[in-house]
Design a protein that fits this description.
Membrane topology (chain B): Multi-pass membrane protein
Largest interface: A-B, 48 and 43 residues
Number of helices of chain A: 14
Number of domains of chain B: 2
Strand order of the largest sheet of chain A: 1-2
Strand content of chain B: under 5%
Order of helices and strands of chain A: HHHHEHEHHHHHHHHH
Largest sheet of chain B: 2 strands, antiparallel
CATH architecture of the largest domain in chain B: Orthogonal Bundle
CATH class of chain A: Mainly Alpha
Oligomer: heterodimer
Shape of chain B: globular
Subcellular location (chain B): Cell membrane
CATH topology of chain A: ABC transporter involved in vitamin B12 uptake, BtuC
GO molecular function (chain B): branched-chain amino acid transmembrane transporter activity
Number of strands of chain A: 2
Order of helices and strands of chain B: HHHHHHHHEHHHHHHEHHHH
Distance between the termini of chain B: 16 Å
Organism (chain B): Palleronia salina
Number of strands of chain B: 2
Largest sheet of chain A: 2 strands, antiparallel
Strand order of the largest sheet of chain B: 1-2
InterPro entries (chain B): ABC_transp_permease, LivM-like
Number of helices of chain B: 18
Distance between the termini of chain A: 52 Å
Number of domains of chain A: 1
Radius of gyration of chain A: 21 Å
Chain lengths: 336, 433
């Protein structure tokens, strides 16, 4: 039995990657939940908004690289992020002006807005592929690792160790900063408070003189920032491919629903639930168990509950369990 | 202009466009478009049942279509005896064990209460899962190692492929029942997300469960309900008839086979269309529309809204499954990697919305029109792009990029068409009466 080494393997293959993935999902789910809370529909175009944001950032990154700008060990994409966010925000605001505002004024049924967002998704998808193409793009030009498994082994003298990729560390730092900023904004500023009021009770908020169009505009800007962050961090950590962002829609929605649609705290919790379940269920536990169990009990097979091809099934299963037993989600979001 | 005249005009336009394709490109292409248009029309009728009649938002059309395709394989391919001998029984036993433990868990959940319930259900699921894996995994390995280059799967029942069409509907209906049970009765977006999920999972199963569908190795050479071109070319009577029409036998055999398919598909489309029309006009159809238009009022009138929704959801998905089986028969092969949500889910949605939600005639029109558009946007886009790119110098990067990306214009156009119709003509080309 060797619990320390078992834990190190677990850190390297489960805890660290799952935490980074959870942070990315949470940022995505926060965007979905914000739109749901303020605009009251499930935005199917969110995955492709993330792809658009990531694409805008990649284009600026290439521009900066061409100018010879570099952040040293950090990826240049971090410098391009604010520009990417600005472009995405303008893009989403333009979409709202051209598409969603009409249905808002009509007080259309939410399901119509969902279908409209599907049309928007098509268009975003087309635009992203038109501009950058459907292929994989790797735009991480910083240092690969903060420390590698080997560094850790040499430092600690253990048989096993864990490495920390810089993209994972950046994901965590940026995500934590973004979430803190978001909660500060929602809880402390006047605009944030009016947004929460609008989300809780639209009529009452209108009566107290809150300008709904202003609230909606601020929401889109925040959503653009969150989507771009999520898209860029996911792209840095894995790689940028427009189609994977469409596929992220399911885990992101699962995270938002598990946490309770409309609840920002819930979106973060949901992101962690989904990410950790996905990684633990599709991880082959053989090495961990070989260390953790006495020799005679060591497993022969891979001890993998589900193959990684079925990772979407995990989000789906969790979604099903939540829908069956607690349709409002962990944090009691809105249920209509 | 009267409504009938308008409708005849719209269908005439589609027919004219198909004939134009025949004249400009080739009659072969025109027939291919027509056949796929017939299949698309059936799919659109299925989605129209769900959305147009009942206001249910199904984003998993692709999954149900793929299940229909699986049915075509499972029914029509000859069984692989060696694979059945190697592990057929064990695979079925494993699946039964899995299903049995889920049933036992549900039973325990209902029968017990308090803390014992949670413990018992968890224990049943865990034990059941490991039992299932212990039986299932070795059986799968045994099956997949049977001549994996050409078979490596259990094969089908060896029945005529037409039998697969209703079976495809049944498979899809079964999947729809499970999803409906879970997600109906909650808010409308939940159904959308649940169907999005199940569609991805069905495709993942088809891609990865080689014992069932050969996965990404594809199943090719499905039996046909119509004669083969080669046989026709060798038949003297056929050759004579082709000659008398002034066609060479090779072209004629291709056209004749496609026309045969077209007739079969058209019969199915007609049956589904008539049934859907009858349903729409029946008291059941009126009740469905009443529920769609005002759920609360319908509930107050004593209608079991969730049950009705489940019913229509299953029916609509079954029609999609039927269309999926027809499509796979038409293709003659099952290629799991060709199922793309944009092509099979969202395109069908565009068909329904453009045609006119709630109108069966509209769904049929939308099926043909949007399919035609989908096929023809690419060559038209190619031409458009070369015009746009023509002022750019040869070999410039932007020019190459523009020319290379015409394929993505399709997505953009479809989204734009959907948004424009929703905005300016939300009732579609042939509005619901």
């Amino acid at each position: 039995m060797d619990l320390i080494n078992a834990f190190m393997v677990l850190m390297n293959f489960v805890i660290v990657p799952a935490t980074a993935y959870a942070a990315q999902l949470s940022l995505g789910a926060l965007g979905v939940t914000m739109i749901y809370g303020i605009l009251r529909f499930s935005n199917f175009a969110h995955g492709d908004s993330m792809a658009f944001g990531a694409m805008a950032t990649i284009l600026f990154t290439w521009g900066l690289q061409a100018l010879g700008v570099s952040l040293g060990p950090l990826p240049t994409a971090l410098l391009a992020l604010p520009l990417g966010i600005a472009v995405t925000a303008a893009f989403l605001l333009g979409t709202d002006r051209a598409v969603y505002r009409f249905y808002r004024a009509q007080k259309a049924n939410p399901v119509i807005l969902v279908i409209v967002s599907m049309g928007v998704m098509f268009i975003y998808n087309g635009i992203t592929r038109l501009i950058i193409g459907p292929d994989d793009r790797n735009f991480d030009d910083g240092a690969r690792f903060l420390f590698t498994v080997r560094d850790f082994k040499e430092w600690s003298g253990l048989e096993e160790g864990f490495g920390l990729r810089s993209s994972q560390a950046i994901t965590l730092v940026v995500a934590i900063a973004a979430v803190m900023l978001l909660f500060w904004f929602l809880n402390r500023t006047r605009t944030g408070k009016s947004m929460r009021a609008f989300s809780d009770n639209e009529d009452l908020a209108l009566l107290s003189g809150i300008n709904p169009e202003y609230v909606v505009r601020v929401t889109w800007i925040i959503v653009a920032a969150l989507a771009t962050l999520a898209g860029v961090l996911y792209g840095l950590d894995k790689s940028f491919k427009p189609f994977t962002y469409f596929q992220l829609l399911l885990p992101i929605f699962a995270a938002a629903i598990v946490g309770g649609l409309g609840s920002p705290l819930g979106a973060i919790a949901g992101g962690f639930v989904i990410a950790f379940s996905e990684v633990t269920i599709t991880y082959a536990w053989k090495r961990v168990l070989t260390y953790a169990l006495p020799d005679e009990m060591a497993p022969d097979g891979l001890v993998q509950l589900l193959s990684t091809d079925y990772k979407f099934a995990v989000s789906f299963m969790i979604l099903v369990v939540v829908l069956l037993f607690r349709p409002t989600g962990l944090f009691r979001g809105k249920s209509v | 202009m009267s409504e009938t005249a308008r409708n005849i005009g719209l269908f005439g336009l589609v027919a004219a466009l198909i004939v134009l394709t025949g004249v400009v490109q080739s009659w072969n292409t025109a027939l291919v478009i027509l056949n796929m248009g017939l299949v698309s029309a059936v799919m659109a009728l299925g989605v129209n049942l769900q959305w147009g009649f009942a206001g249910l938002f199904n984003v998993g059309v692709m999954g149900f279509v793929a299940l229909g395709g699986l049915a075509a394989v499972l029914v029509s391919m000859p069984p692989v005896g060696a694979a059945w001998a190697a592990g057929g029984g064990r695979v079925i036993l494993g699946l039964l064990l899995g299903a049995g433990s889920i049933a036992a868990a549900i039973f325990a959940w209902r029968a017990l209460s308090g803390r014992t319930r949670g413990v018992a259900v968890t224990a049943i699921i865990l034990v059941g899962f490991f039992l299932y894996r212990a039986v299932f995994d070795p059986a799968v390995e045994a099956i997949e190692s049977v001549d994996s280059a050409s078979t490596g799967y259990l094969g089908g029942l060896g029945l005529p492929v037409i039998v697969a069409w209703p079976v495809g509907g049944l498979l899809a209906a079964g999947a729809a029942w499970i999803i409906g049970k879970i997600a109906l009765g909650l808010r409308s977006d939940y159904l959308a997300i649940a169907t999005l999920g199940i569609a991805e999972i069905i495709i993942a199963v088809l891609k990865n469960e080689d014992w069932l569908s050969r996965g990404v190795k594809n199943v090719i050479g499905l039996p046909r309900p119509v004669p083969y071109e080669v046989d026709l070319q060798q038949s003297e009577t056929f050759a004579e008839r082709a000659m008398s029409l002034g066609l060479d036998p090779v072209t004629a055999s291709g056209l004749w086979v496609k026309a045969n398919y077209g007739i079969l598909l058209a019969i199915v489309l007609l049956i589904v269309f008539v049934l859907a029309q009858l349903a729409l006009a029946s008291p059941w159809g009126r009740m469905m529309r009443a529920i769609r238009d005002n759920e609360t009022a319908a509930r107050a009138m004593g209608k079991d809204v969730t049950r009705r929704h489940l019913q229509v959801f299953i029916l609509g998905s079954a029609v999609c499954g039927l269309a999926g089986a027809m499509m796979t028969t038409l293709d003659g092969q099952l290629t799991p990697s060709s199922y793309q949500p944009l092509r099979f889910t969202f395109l069908v949605w565009v068909m329904v919305i453009v045609g006119g939600s709630g109108s069966n005639l509209g769904a049929v029109l939308g099926g043909f029109l949007i399919w035609l558009l989908w096929v023809q946007v690419e060559p038209v886009g190619q031409a458009l792009m070369s015009v746009i790119a023509s002022p750019l110098p040869d070999g410039s990067a932007l020019r190459d990029h523009l020319l290379a990306s015409t394929a993505h214009i399709r997505l953009f156009t479809m989204g734009l068409v959907l948004l424009l119709v929703l905005r300016f003509s939300p009732r579609g080309l042939i509005p619901e009466k």
